[in-house]
Amino acid sequence: MKHSAAAKRFAHGTLLGLAFLALAGNSLTASAGIKCWTNKDGIRECGDRLPPEYAQKGHEQISNSGVKVTVFEAAKSKEELAEARRLAAAKAEQERIARIRAAEQLAHDQVLLQTFTTEEDLLLARDGKLAVIESRIKLAQNRVAKMETNLEQLTSRAAQQERSGRTVAENLQQRIAKVRRRIESHMAYIDDRRGDQDVIRQQFQADLERFRALKSGQVQPGEVTSEEEPPSVSTQAGLE
Predict the structure, then answer these.
(1) More confident residue, 161 or 4
(2) Label partner for 119 (CA 20 to 30 A): which of 133, 155, 162, 163?
């Protein structure tokens, strides 16, 4: 009797074990699902196993009920990986530049709002800077006028020497050449200062438009509205 009872318990346990393995097998099969891929001829194929030659290709895994479970992308080539890294680096650089520009724009806007109260303040500051440069231009022009008078005197002496049949003295030629170089240098200086005035006008015009937009609420401090770099603050424009 004891032997018979033990045999029954063994048989029962075996049946339970087989049932468990069967359920586990069904579960594994269900989880494995169906794999679908495109063969070398461009035809879509499906099966319970992915052929080794398509292991690096893109494929889909579908459950036994026909629901798409997972999409596996094709393995990227070295060139594709390199291009992906390049694009990621370019995107990161663009984001870095955008953050820098936003910070620069915020600093510019804060100085603009703290320095000027009204548009008239901006215009007065602009005119003051232009006037300072204009005074330097006038001073250079007066020097040029004096040097031109001196040059006329020197060239007149040289002409007299030539009319008398003599060779123009070496030191006189050197003095004439020196005065001409100084005149050219001063004229270049005047042209540069005119350029400075143009830059100041442009900077103040840009700052005036930004000031109006900030005061009216059209833009917020630090908001970047164009691809251009934030202009230098007008209070810092021009030459000292």
Answers:
(1) 161
(2) 133
